[in-house]
């Protein structure tokens, strides 16, 4: 384990991949090793800029990550790409097949691409991705990009584990804003309207103006300097607007660092994930511990038969779990 930790700290990509496989494993002995590894690496105190990227299928996420990633490595930065894929239906995760589409980036020695772990349970995916981020940081990556398809809960998960959350949008046909939920707009630190090229350029510029207007209408957040969150046009295909987008991201991250928001966001996230782990651990015991499951079944039957009041039965279950009952 010490050997693996040292190799990850030295930036060895094969060891990083092995470490990620370990955190993704469901085996109890692997879990214990992974926890020890993460604990050892945490001491290194390395920090990457964590960027979440979300967008509907076909908006150009893969193309963007390839172009944006190449732009970053050309600036001498090391870039890791991870994915949170909420749909287990999509075989092998979203960027597995994409490694061929991200052909240039996957061959770049300063880039590391890891497909999404195939796991039905989103909570499990979240933990594994978070831990993979920690491993990439320890391996000295400057930027960790986390991609997710914009469906449902996964956006919130990714926003809760990143420093910047970026929404990638397509040019809208008419003057209607694409059905972006208000809650998701409120999470965005930047909206990038992709495909601002060729015939689509005028529509893209109108869409940028529409989103800029919509963002201005949202409640001002303490973690934003004047003029943020911004909407900007990009073309992932023609590699336009990428440097500008990166400069704005850096500006925002630097401002947040100077004003304490960067650290406080990470602290709040760490606390959130700690509490989530405890909650999920309790739930897992409820489901997996045979003795507890048995008692749950017996008490459930007794409650159903009217022999025990629900509250009294719940108090007994919580006592069994070592947790205090409701006051
Ligand atoms: N014109 C134009 N087309 C683009 C641009 N970026 C991506 N595309 C095209 O849009 C299509 C979808 O691109 P992808 O990068 O695969 O999109 P995605 O968001 O990763 O899609 P999923 O992985 O299915 O969610 C492809 O045909 C791309 O060539 C762009 O900047 N301009
Ligand atoms: Mg894709």
From TrEMBL:
Family matches, as SUPFAM superfamilies: P-loop containing nucleoside triphosphate hydrolases (SSF52540)
Upper classification of the organism: Bacteria, Pseudomonadati, Pseudomonadota, Alphaproteobacteria, Rhodobacterales
Organism: Sedimentimonas flavescens
Gene that produces this protein: meaB
Name assigned to this protein: Methylmalonyl Co-A mutase-associated GTPase MeaB
UniProt keywords, alphabetically: Hydrolase
EC number of this enzyme: 3.6.5.-
Family, per entry: Belongs to the SIMIBI class G3E GTPase family. ArgK/MeaB subfamily.
The organism's place on the tree of life at top rank: Bacteria
Statement: the UniProt record of this protein carries the keyword Hydrolase: yes
Xref: Pfam families: MeaB
GO MF, one annotated term: hydrolase activity
CDD domains: MMAA-like
């Amino acid at each position: 384990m010490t050997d693996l930790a040292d190799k990850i700290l030295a930036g060895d990509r094969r060891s990083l991949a092995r470490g990620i496989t370990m955190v993704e494993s469901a085996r109890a002995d692997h879990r214990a090793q992974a926890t020890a590894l993460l604990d050892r690496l945490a001491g290194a105190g390395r920090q990457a800029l964590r960027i979440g990227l979300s967008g509907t299928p076909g908006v150009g996420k893969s193309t963007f990550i390839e172009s944006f990633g190449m732009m970053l490595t050309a600036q001498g930065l090391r870039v890791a790409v991870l994915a949170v894929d909420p749909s287990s239906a999509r075989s092998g995760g979203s960027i597995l097949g994409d490694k061929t589409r991200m052909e240039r980036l996957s061959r770049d020695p300063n880039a590391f691409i890891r497909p999404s772990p195939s796991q039905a349970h989103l909570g499990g995916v979240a933990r594994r991705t978070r831990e993979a981020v920690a491993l990439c940081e320890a391996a000295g990556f400057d930027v960790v990009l986390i991609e997710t398809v914009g469906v449902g809960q996964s956006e919130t998960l990714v926003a809760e584990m990143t420093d910047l959350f970026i929404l990638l949008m397509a040019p809208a046909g008419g003057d209607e804003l694409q059905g972006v939920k208000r809650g998701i707009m409120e999470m965005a630190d930047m909206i990038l309207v992709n495909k601002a090229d060729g015939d689509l350029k005028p529509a893209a510029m109108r869409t940028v103006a529409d989103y800029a207007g919509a963002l201005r209408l949202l409640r001002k957040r303490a973690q934003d300097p004047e003029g943020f969150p911004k909407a900007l046009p990009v073309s992932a295909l023609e590699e336009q607007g990428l440097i500008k987008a990166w400069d704005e991201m850096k500006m925002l991250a630097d401002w947040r660092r100077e004003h304490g928001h960067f650290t406080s966001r990470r602290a709040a996230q760490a606390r959130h994930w700690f509490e989530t782990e405890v909650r999920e651990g309790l739930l897992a015991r409820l489901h997996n511990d045979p003795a507890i499951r048995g008692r749950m079944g017996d008490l459930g039957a007794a409650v159903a038969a009217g022999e025990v009041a629900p509250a009294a039965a719940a108090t007994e279950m919580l006592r069994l779990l070592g947790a205090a009952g409701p006051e």
